[in-house]
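Data availability excerpt. The first of two example chains:
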Amino acid sequence: MKKGGGKKPVDEGVKVVATNRRARFDYAIEDAWEAGLSLVGSEVKSLREGNVNLSDAYAQPRGDELYLVNCRIGEYKQAAHFGHEPLRDRKLLMKRAELDRIRGKVEQRGYTLIPLRLYFKEGWAKVEIGLAKGRSHEDRRDVIAERESKREIDRAMSRGRRR
């Protein structure tokens, strides 16, 4: 898939820093958006080193803004005098129309915003947030069973092609 008149692929210039691998297992992701991150200099340097943890993070609307809460960006060792607080709330940058649409969906019962991955796109720090609904223990079992059966079918198909 291409953008901008077919000149360059969408994923060109994207460097993934961290992914939340548990998110798609623990939650049913219904929709996803891209948001910018408001960071200080030492946080950007730390992100470039890959010193980030998204496992317990979530996004939360406050007033007219959206914040990334509980995302740990480790301290940057070479920061001279002023480092940053590793667990501070970080403002997410999105257009007003998208924020309003997201806020309306989050206010519905059972939905939350989970960061799926954090990456640099053309030099700018971005986070992909997903509208998620928590899965119960039985739902997780169903997902595992479905994945295993798909894997078994793929194995049988590849064995059939070899003969």
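And the second chain:
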Amino acid sequence: MAQAIRHGVDWARAQALAARERAAFVARNPASQALAGQAAEHLLFGVPMHWMKDWSTPFALTVAEASGARFSDADGHDYIDFCLGDTGAMFGHAPAPVAQAIACQATRGYTAMLPSPDAAPVAAELARRFGLPFWQFALSASDANRFVLRWLRAATGRDKILVFNGCYHGTVDDVFVDLVDGLPVQRDSLLGQVYALTEHTVVVEFNDLAALEAALAGGDVACVLAEPVMTNIGMVLPQPGYWAAAQQILRRHGTLLVIDETHTISSGPGGYAREHGMAPDALVLGKPIAGGVPCAVYGFSEEVARRVERAKRAAPAGHSGVGTTLSANMFAMAAMRANLEQVMTEQAYAHMFALAAQLADGLRAAIARHGLPWCVTRVGARTEFQFGATAPRNGSEAGAMLDGELEQIIHLYLLNRGLLITPFHNMLLVCPQTGAEDVARLLAVLDACLGELA
């Protein structure tokens, strides 16, 4: 028997709404449907990356053009974008200074396996912003995380790493370990993995200091890899005092702290760690750092950088397993310099913070108006609503709030009215080009959606 009420929603009405919205999407997007049919002839799963099939739509929506806080599709419809490439375009699509830097660099070479004049200024700006003096580059945060784990295992002589239940650090195999009934279990969704990740990866719940202490007591964990705020399973904020106490535990056991700021760069120009007085040993940042051009960075404290250098010098000559041919290419470095110097400014963040506060307040008001047992969390320019009455304290609680079917109904309703939010959860971003009228439009349409559901 179908569930009558689900997360405060009349489920029969929700299913009827979903059918109506799917039909409306098909009717309004014939060009995207035709392009999806053509793509299916030669693209695996019919899309360039398989997860592009996992949106709320009956077929993939084809984007024709994107600029600032907006994009248009193949059928000529315009959208206000609150997804922004799931953070990749957090500072807007095609920011003008980055576009100009790319155009200039396009006639001067793309890659040469040697430094460009942008390399030193970029590293200096990263050191100023994030408080870590030494930096390296990669093409994605996934690669940067892999490289950091490899460096720190070599530098510490320890094999294990620790992650938090429900974490997200890209496609790094080592982190696909969850807690199930209190036991570490490799995620079933990880395709093609043939060795036991649990031999080298320890997993505990976020915000559980006792579990962290116990996990590190053996002295065999090289580093903790963590987002300072969990984001991908639904946002989970650290409890007051958590990171201060956690850092003391790490230092006591000689375990290094790696902070992945790829999503939490929404917190400010120096990320969440700098804004909240944390002192990580290493930091990773990908996605938006070059304005959407593929690029990522990772930095080390001076003490850790020296240990890394010693490990490299002590190793035999040959391929280290760190870095790729296109890492730190001239094209990405030019884009990153322009983005850091001219786009990721204090003024841009102030604008985004004000709009995100307006958005979060409006979401709370709409949820309360319709009597829904949902909550709202904000981290700087990043806002999320979750299907639970109180904010989750760890990955298990956040995971229990997820409802993919309900998310997709809401997302499709918004999309059919020219509004895009992030798939797979209910995350919304604002960028420097987002306006107060855009936020008001989103809130009005979402309010109408909730009125049809509740």
